[in-house]
């Protein structure tokens, strides 16, 4: 009986450790893309990013050159780089389960900002 208890205890410990380790294997699906914005400077790019985030009504954070937003099971980051009177917008989108959702959302953001 003592041997059975030891085996069961070892099994439960192994299962517990495996359960803790599983989230580490679950990597988010990520998509990225960029678009050149002719005639739109960096502040204009950031203004478009802010308007986009306001339009979709999601929580967000912002920095000097970026905006980060949170939606359902994912996140996105919009970066705006200056290039004289033009700018480059780069979008990263991540989703917990679906590369298709991440990719579609990234394309949607680029299309909305580059209108």
Secondary structure layout plus pairing:
Blueprint: H1 2-25, E1 29-37, H2 42-56, E2 60-62, E3 66-71, E4 74-83, E5 86-95, H3 99-113
Antiparallel strand pairs: 1-5, 2-3, 3-4, 4-5
CATH topology: TATA-Binding Protein
Mean pLDDT: 84
How would you describe the oligomerization state of the chains in this entry?
single chain
Question: Largest sheet at a glance?
Answer: 5 strands, antiparallel
Beta percentage is 25-35%
CATH architecture: 2-Layer Sandwich
Q: What pattern of helices and strands is seen along the backbone?
A: HEHEEEEH
Explain this structure to me?
With 115 residues, the protein is α+β, with helices and mostly antiparallel strands. The chain has a single domain (27-113), classed as Alpha-D-phosphohexomutase, C-terminal domain (TATA-Binding Protein), CATH 3.30.310. The chain contains three helices and five strands, in the order H-E-H-E-E-E-E-H. A five-stranded antiparallel beta sheet has the order 1-5-4-3-2. The longest helix is centred in the N-terminal third of the chain and has 24 residues, at 2-25. It is globular. 26% of the residues are buried.
What key attributes describe this structure?
115 residues; alpha+beta; TATA-Binding Protein; 3 helices; 5 strands; 33% strand; globular
The gist of it:
The chain is an alpha+beta fold and 115 residues long. The chain is built from three helices and five strands, in the order αβαββββα.
